[in-house]
């Protein structure tokens, strides 16, 4: 078994193999494979099984390099990678890290969220501006109507109603350009 372990280390010099009882983690510069002693025994005694595991080991270094490159692109920091190959030759990989969103580099998710937020705010500002422009136009139209009515200084308005109070309300509404109030009351004295 020791002989096969040494052969494996020579075949994959870029990988550090750990067959001990405690797990070791790799990092961006070091690929570590925690190989179970049962798997190592099977590899030493079964060339077909060894071929399968060795084929999977050929992808360990490029795979880990891609993982670290993608993490950097997403502005994430990976603190460690633990790869374990069990007795059946199955590999499992665990890594821990964090995403940084402060500073000049931010991940794409944060940038997209900020972009959408800015777009929503800009849309609301545009809607508010349009609404204010419409309100200003209505005010100007009412002012123009009132000026037109008062420029001659004499004008005729007719209002009808069932009593003096309703006639007066209708008259005031016509002069001011608003609708007659409903439910409002005031006293008219002669």
Summarize the structure.
The chain is an alpha/beta fold and 190 residues long. Helix content is 53%, strand content 15%.
Can you put this structure into words, describing what you see?
Residues 113-135 have a biased composition (Basic and acidic residues). Pfam families: DUF6033. Residues 99-112 have a biased composition (Polar residues). This protein is α/β, with parallel strands linked by helices. It folds into 2 domains: 1-104, no CATH class; 106-149. It contains 6 helices and 4 strands; from the N terminus they run αββαααββαα. Strand 3 and strand 4 (91-99) form a beta hairpin. Helix 2 crosses helix 3. It is rod-shaped and about 115 Å long. The termini are far apart. The mean pLDDT is 82.
Report the total helices: 6
Beta-strand percentage? 5-15%
Order of helices and strands: HEEHHHEEHH
Radius of gyration: 41 Å
Indicate the overall shape. rod-shaped
């Amino acid at each position: 078994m020791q002989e096969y372990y040494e052969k494996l280390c020579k075949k994959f010099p870029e990988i550090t193999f750990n067959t001990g009882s405690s797990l070791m983690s790799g990092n961006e510069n070091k690929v570590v494979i925690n190989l179970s002693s049962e798997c190592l025994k099977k590899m030493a005694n079964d060339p077909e099984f060894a071929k399968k595991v060795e084929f999977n080991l050929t992808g360990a270094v490029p795979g880990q390099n891609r993982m670290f490159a993608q993490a950097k692109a997403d502005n994430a920091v990976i603190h460690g990678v633990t790869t374990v190959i069990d007795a059946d030759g199955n590999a499992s990989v665990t890594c821990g890290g964090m995403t940084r969103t402060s500073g000049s580099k931010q991940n794409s998710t944060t940038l997209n969220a900020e972009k959408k937020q800015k777009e929503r705010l800009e849309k609301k500002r545009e809607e508010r501006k349009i609404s204010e422009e419409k309100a200003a136009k209505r005010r100007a139209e009412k002012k123009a109507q009132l000026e037109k009515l008062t420029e001659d200084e004499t004008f005729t308005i007719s209002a009808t109603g069932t009593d003096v109070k309703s006639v007066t309300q209708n008259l005031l509404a016509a002069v001011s350009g608003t609708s007659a109030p409903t439910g409002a009351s005031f006293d008219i004295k002669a």
